[in-house]
Amino acid sequence: MTTPDIRAAHAQAQSARTEAAKGRPALVDGWIIAAAIAVIAAYVRAIWFTPAEATQGLAQKIYYLHLPAALNAYLAFGVVFVTSIVYLWLRDERADRVAESSAEVGLLFTTVVLTTGPIWGKPIWGTWWTWDARLTLTLFLWFIYAGYVVLRGAIPEPAQRARYSAVLGILGALLIPFIHMSVYLFRTLHPMPIVLKPDRPSLPPEMLHTLLFSFLAFVLVYFALVRARYRLSIERARAAELEAALEGGR
Amino acid sequence: MSDPTFRDTTLTGATPRESESPVLPGLLAATWLIASKDLAIEFRTRTAFFSALVFALLGLTIFFFAWDPTAVAAIDLAPGVLWVIFTFSGLLGLQRSFGVEQADRAMDALLAAPVEREAIYLGKAVANFLFVVGVQVIAIPAVALFYNVPLGSIWLSLTGIAVLAALGIVAVGTLFSAMAVNTRLAELLLPMLSLPFFVPVVMAAAQTTSRLLAGRPEAEAWPWLRILLGFDLVFVVACAIAFPYTLDE
């Protein structure tokens, strides 16, 4: 290929990218802004308008971040499981995009859980980390879905990537009960459930309301991020198609 | 080559023939054919088996020197060492399982062969299972010897646990081996994908072994054995179903 040829190809690639950028929806949209406002409101409420816990003091405030993130991580991985089955069944690439987006957001939430937990654990338990059942389970969720994200990055071909990651998305979900059972056979130190239990929640109403508010704010964050990530994956696929067309046209 | 069976097995190993084993129904016959092909390759080259074995022996040596023998008794370390080297030496065999099919695009020939895709998975899994068990037949007595573990009364139970653990590891590892070879990261990806799945297996096997060695009542080992059995059941079925989805269509 001569130099002018390469120049021409570059110019063509540049125009293809500009074309791809045209009509691209802004990634920061109303959903993201609404989610950010909801989270800020949840924290304002948690910090200034919710009473401090009697024995743990201010450290307990991290609970309004920790628990909603944990529940939404489970939601995210549940969505990966369901959309993975849907993909293998219907071969609809939208299901694969939702799985991809949800796994990444779930990994982010799991990271939040694994960071806020030790920050609370140090003053309350006296240790950053302990091999308690729920901590270990969360760590393994992180490993499984980190593997999922790495697997996706290691396969260039879209259909193959979708099939492989769907298989891992399903097997990963099947693995969770086994890790859960194994780690529970070791003793657990984690606070026992105080909201989702058969009895009435043993949390004062102000705290419960703040928690629910925070949880809903996080659900909004989840949807906003998955939506943004979903649109990014469409953009990426379009960019890859244009690049491929260019390669073929040379 | 002085071995008179050499030419014959090479041919039957590569092409499934209807007349090969008329007694067995199709799926089982094809499974065995693929397994025996892999075992024949391994038997002739012996590369993976010896590297896995030496790896296991090196592993148990390194583990011994990584601990203070005056603080921790060797017998307390033995179950952990045993199942950790079991897992990692198993990975060496699994790496190779679909790796050998990449030379000369042998995988394409395997896919073009008139056998069910489940048979390819099961055949590979059977070969891997025998590989892992083969390494353990030497590695477990070696651990017993070097760590001074009295296997006398528990060897039968230990064999049972080893078989169950090998089954679980091989079921998942064979599938991930098939996936990993077709990615950009190849062998690097296999441990990353498989190790989280090996955790319940290794935990259950090590906990059961340490309880057996300590002479604890059998009832204490049962919950762990149930996890191991459940894992084998769920993942042998799930991985056999999932395998065809990992092949090119």
Task: Tell me what you see in this structure.
Chain A is 77% helix and 0% strand. With 250 residues, chain A is mainly α. In chain A, helix 1 (3-21) runs antiparallel to helix 7, helix 3 (63-90) packs across helix 7 and helix 4 (93-125) packs parallel to helix 6. Chain A is elongated. Chain B is mainly alpha-helical and 249 residues long. Chain B has one domain. Chain B is 73% helix and 0% strand. In chain B, helix 6 crosses helix 7 (155-180) and helix 8 runs antiparallel to helix 9 (222-242). The A-B interface holds A 88, 140, 143-144, 146-147, 150-151, 154-156, 160, 163-164, 166-168, 170-171, 174-175, 178-179, 181-182, 185 and B 172, 175, 179, 182-185, 189, 192-193, 195-197, 199-200, 203-204, 207, 223-224, 227, 230-231, 234-235, 238-239, 242, 245-246, 248.
Q: Return Rg of chain A in Å.
A: 22 Å
Approximately what portion of the residues of chain B adopt beta-strand conformation? under 5%
**DSSP strand content of chain A:** under 5%
Distance between the termini of chain B: 39 Å
State the secondary-structure class of chain B.
mainly alpha
N-to-C order of helices and strands of chain A: HHHHHHH
Characteristic terms for this protein:
heterodimer; A: 250 residues; mainly alpha; B: 249 residues; 0% strand; disordered N terminus
Can you summarize this structure?
Chain A has 250 residues and is mostly helical. Chain A has helices at residues 3-21, 30-48, 63-90, 93-125, 133-153, 158-185, 205-249. Chain A is elongated and about 75 Å long.
